[in-house]
Design goal:
Oligomer: heterotrimer
Distance between the termini of chain B: 75 Å
CATH superfamily of chain C: Cytochrome-c3 Hydrogenase, chain B
Largest sheet of chain C: 3 strands, antiparallel
Strand order of the largest sheet of chain C: 1-2-3
Number of helices of chain B: 3
Number of domains of chain C: 1
Largest interface: A-C, 33 and 37 residues
Largest sheet of chain B: 3 strands, antiparallel
Order of helices and strands of chain C: EEEHHHHEEHHHHHEEEHHH
Strand content of chain C: 5-15%
Strand content of chain B: 15-25%
Number of domains of chain B: 1
Number of strands of chain C: 8
CATH architecture of chain B: 2-Layer Sandwich
Structural class of chain B: alpha+beta
Radius of gyration of chain B: 22 Å
CATH class of chain B: Alpha Beta
Chains: A alpha/beta (about 130), B alpha+beta (about 110), C alpha+beta (about 350)
């Protein structure tokens, strides 16, 4: 981490309070990053405070990945939360705009949540065209 | 005059030669240093397979036992990493672009 | 009043890349826009499991065709931050020069698309004619027109000798003269002003709350530019963020036009001060750790989160591109606008959908 960046690990219950504190300090939501580790998901919420980057990290278990939505505090978070749901199957509770899995049109749902790449579907054999 | 800002430009270019090249009737002026097609010099190659390992798309296949160097031109992205790593200067990038093809063919060169 | 749903995209003459919007319209007024993306989702973030961290530079560069160099540069900066590699100063200056050339060509492309979106085809052709000269400079110095292929971990792959620097500066004079002719039309012509003024106004507080970045934010009065963070050679160059206060499409167009001349001046400063030396540092071992890097792309701030665990494949590669951050603002601007303004509003955020959905 560069010197002007901070990272704080917080429990899931303290997420909304910390995000509200960032909003009060005038922070701009920069990104929400989800990482699939073998035992848990790591969600990193980054905020920009006048050029400095402050990140909050939340760890959720893989069996029950639920996290509250911050879209009531930062309206633009709905896109990041829908993306997290579509790619990782992380259940975000209380989303303001819920695309119900339709934001990303992918052939394989929740592809990034599995650490092993999914097996390719078998292709049908090409059939000769009767002339 | 705020209504005729574009007319100055339009008039100037109506009286100048067009800047476009009438390709394919005129050839495109090649720019030196541009990355184009791969050129293989068979005499220098020792079949060390370094280029095949470094190629990001798998366009190069080298068989040391049979002294065979195969290049699939349609897979090559002209990145130049094989040129940098070759220890014997047998690969180079020319400035021309490749010709279109309808099938993925592989060019093979056999060493003596 | 009955509502109609008009599908906009994924194929549309004004869109450079496919995005689908369902516009709910009452007569000629758009009530809301529902986005649906994923036409160009290639799952590049998952590709880190297959390609090792040295090879991944070419994948990172190919996330987008317009802003490709800065993607590669940011990725290299991220891995260099994790591995604590010190990039030699000459490589930093070269990266700065190519980054600014990339910015010039991207803004000229956008100016052309905006003119095309308004129906002003001849101005579109002139902008791209000027852009051709910039692409020739780029091809002569890096080897490629669109994908530069010149960044690598630890430095750059090609050097610019004294002859190349002289030629670049000479071509830049001609480019600057041509650019001032077309920016004059963009900023002073009445037909352009009629289409752009007052369309899509974002106040300063709204721009900050929606998480906007880049020219969207700067045209609403917030002076934030990631180049102020001082990466590459920017801490030794003089630059001030270009801002406007009106926050409408005309202000965003003016910010981008002013950034063109700012980039030319930055290139001249960098080529004047470039120190001699080597262009790459040695890289060995595997990365272990994590880094968050932010740089300024032509469209705004791009954030790379890289996480490595000591093997040769990175564990996580996450890109948050500027268009992704500007999309909520675009959806808000589309509410209540006229149907004929929809192309202008979509183009005003400078959409680069292939970046958004890597």
């Amino acid at each position: 981490m560069k010197p002007e960046q901070t990272l704080e690990i917080i429990p899931v219950g303290a997420l909304l309070k910390s995000v509200r504190a960032m909003r009060v300090r005038g922070g701009r939501l920069v990104q929400i990053c989800a990482t699939a580790l073998p035992e848990q998901f790591e969600l990193t919420y980054s905020f920009d405070l006048d050029g400095r980057l402050a990140s909050l990290r939340v760890l959720v278990p893989i069996e029950d990945p639920r996290v509250p939505s911050i879209a009531l505090i930062y309206g633009c978070a709905f896109l990041y939360e829908n993306e997290m749901h579509d790619l990782f199957n992380i259940k975000v509770e209380g989303m303001t705009v819920d695309f119900r899995g339709n934001l990303y049109r992918t052939a394989v749902k929740y592809a990034f949540g599995k650490t092993k790449p999914p097996a390719a579907k078998p292709r049908p054999e090409p059939v000769a065209c009767p002339v | 005059m705020p209504y005729f800002q574009m007319s100055r430009l339009a008039l100037k270019w109506a009286l100048t030669r067009p800047p476009t090249t009438r390709y394919p009737f005129e050839p495109r002026r090649a720019i030196a240093g541009s990355r184009g097609q791969l050129v293989f010099t068979r005499g220098n190659c020792v079949y060390c397979t370094a280029c095949a390992r470094k190629c990001p798309t798998g366009a190069l296949k080298v068989d040391r036992a049979r002294k065979k160097f195969a290049l699939e031109r349609l897979r090559c992205i002209s990145c130049g990493y094989c040129v940098e790593i070759c220890p014997k200067d047998s690969l180079a990038l020319s400035t021309g672009h490749g010709s279109p093809a309808t099938t993925r063919e592989s060019e093979s060169y056999f060493g003596t | 009043m009955a509502r109609t749903i008009i599908p906009f995209g994924p194929q549309h003459p004004v869109l450079p890349e496919p995005i689908h919007l369902d516009l709910v319209v009452e007569d000629e007024k758009v009530i809301e826009a529902r986005p649906s993306i994923g036409f160009i989702h290639r799952g590049l973030e998952k590709l880190v499991e297959k390609k090792d961290y040295l090879e991944f530079v070419y994948v990172a560069e190919r996330i987008c065709g317009i802003c490709s160099f800065i993607h590669g540069q940011t990725y290299c900066q991220g891995v260099e931050a994790i591995m604590n590699i010190a990039v030699p100063p000459r490589a930093n200056y070269l990266r700065t020069v190519w980054g600014e050339l990339s910015r010039i060509h991207s803004h000229l492309l956008w100016l052309g698309l905006m003119a095309d979106g308004m129906g002003f085809e001849s101005l579109f052709m002139h902008s791209w004619r000027v852009r051709e000269r910039v692409l020739n400079i780029i091809e002569a110095t890096t080897g490629g027109r669109v994908i530069f292929g010149s960044c690598k971990i630890g430095g750059v792959r090609r050097d610019m000798d004294a002859g190349a620097i002289k030629n670049t500066l000479a071509e830049l004079e001609i480019v600057e003269r041509d650019m001032s002719e077309i920016t004059n039309v963009f900023l002073n012509d009445n037909s352009v002003k009629d289409r752009l003024s007052g369309v899509g106004v974002l106040s300063r507080q709204e721009a900050h709350d929606f998480g906007c970045v880049g020219p969207m934010l700067r045209a609403s009065g917030v002076a934030q530019d990631m180049r102020q963070l001082g990466y590459a050679a920017y801490q030794e160059l003089q630059m001030e963020p270009v801002t406007r206060t009106e926050g409408d499409s005309y202000a965003r167009c003016a910010v981008r036009c002013d950034e063109l001349s700012q980039s030319v001046s930055l290139i001249r400063q960098a080529l004047g001060k470039i120190p001699p030396g080597e262009i790459e540092a040695k890289v060995s071992g595997n990365p272990d750790g994590e880094a968050i890097v932010r740089t300024e792309q032509p469209r705004g701030e791009v954030v790379y989160c890289l996480k490595a665990n000591g093997t040769k494949n990175l564990q996580r590669f996450r890109v948050r591109t500027p268009t992704f951050a500007n999309l909520p603002a675009m959806l808000k601007l589309l509410q209540g606008c006229q149907l004929a303004d929809v192309p202008i509003l979509i183009l005003t955020i400078d959409p680069c959908i292939s970046c958004t959905e890597r």
